[in-house]
Amino acid sequence: MSQHATTLPDSAPPGFRVQARAVLGLGLPLIGSHLAQFGLHVTDTIMLGWYGVTDLAAGALGATVFFAFFTFGTGYANAVMPMVATAAARDDEPEVRRATRMGLWLSLIFAALVLPFFLWSAPILDTLGQEEEVARLGGAYLAIVGLGLAPALMVMVLKSYLAALGRTQVVLWVTVAAVFVNIFFNWVFIFGNLGVAEMGARGAAIASVLVQLFTLAVMLAYAAWLPALRRYALLVRFWRPDWAALRAVNALGLPIGLAMLAETGMFAASAVMMGWLGAQTLAAHSIALEITAMFFMVHMGLSNAATVLVGRARGRRDLPGLRAAARASVIISMAVALATMLVYITLGEFMVGAFLAPDNPERAVIVPLGVTLLWVAALFQLADGGQAMAMGLLRGIQDTRVPMVIAAISYWLIGIPAGYALAFMLGLEGVGLWFGLVAGLTVAALALMLRFWRAVRPAESGAFHA
Fold this sequence. Notes:
Layout: H1 16-51, H2 53-73, H3 75-89, H4 93-119, H5 122-127, H6 132-145, H7 149-164, H8 168-189, H9 201-225, H10 243-276, H11 279-316, H12 319-353, H13 363-379, H14 381-396, H15 401-425, H16 429-455, H17 462-465
Helix pairs in contact: 1-2, 1-8, 1-11, 1-12, 2-6, 2-9, 2-10, 2-11, 3-4, 3-7, 3-10, 3-11, 4-7, 4-10, 6-9, 7-9, 8-9, 10-11, 10-15, 10-16, 11-12, 11-13, 11-14, 12-13, 12-14, 13-16, 14-16, 15-16
């Protein structure tokens, strides 16, 4: 396993080329890691799609609900990233260790608190108006996959810790390996191979839990025993609480988690409302959402790179370097968004069709609707990339509370009501729901970007120096 660490400039000049190289040097492995991480969900969706439409709908619905909780819980991992980056820039080894440990603690606590929901989720899905068989299978999926939430969140904390220290290569390759492990376990448990009973959506859940445990074991071994990282003594006396550090990580991470939950909750709510329109519509929505979320991982990787670079500049108290890194990150993210729009418009039918068996009789309904949703998705690429990048920049300067409020207002007071009105009151159905997503994301992107650039103006450096 490579011990190579990405070089992070300690005092990079504010030129665009230098900063762009720094963003891409960190961002490309992180993009690959996010794509590989999302590949776990994509392979589940594709393999369940080949197994059957009902299992696909149930698995996709269950995965959407799981992802909402997972995203909330990763608020602590996202808090660890800027805290470790800033502490590392100041050569504060104890603070690096304290923030990471308490991030792991909080991830375990959160997973334990929400586990009962997963174990008794079937009746909840039924009361939300899902078709009976979809609710039953979705509940069975969630009861199993919920057991993997704790290791999944701990993996995210360790990834943030390593990324903040510039060790993005290992984050990439471990996640890539996990995709192939997931494909193998899906083949065994979904379709019933090697003497194992055929289990459909439940088999996908079992595979996911096993993959998370595998990934956690590898990441812990690397983070704890790599010679270059032993000085942080990450697991030495891990059981000892550090209440001050726990409060600090929670204060930063809880608003991040709530902001992320506001966004993913908007998409989860759209999935529930899509279920009201039937299994075929939900399946088309789920496929289109898988595709858009896969491309969104590029923005997430760039956003993480921006968080690290901004956090390190904050630790050095280098405001010009911080602003230059932010500008380069935003420009690169905008270029990616424009390229993604072109892909959606030209390759939509091919991408949607890949999620269904060629002889599936429901392709004639699901594929055209999925393609139409991708055309709508092309409209919000700049907004979606912009809000992700703005969130990353704001985390870098450890500004998380007001962004949480902005996200909640944008997604739940604008996005969801607009989507419901367009879909059910004006009769636009699935397309109307997606136009509501466009509205929420656009408002969030504009408000968050404005807040960041106001915070880092030379005359207003309060957030920067906090």
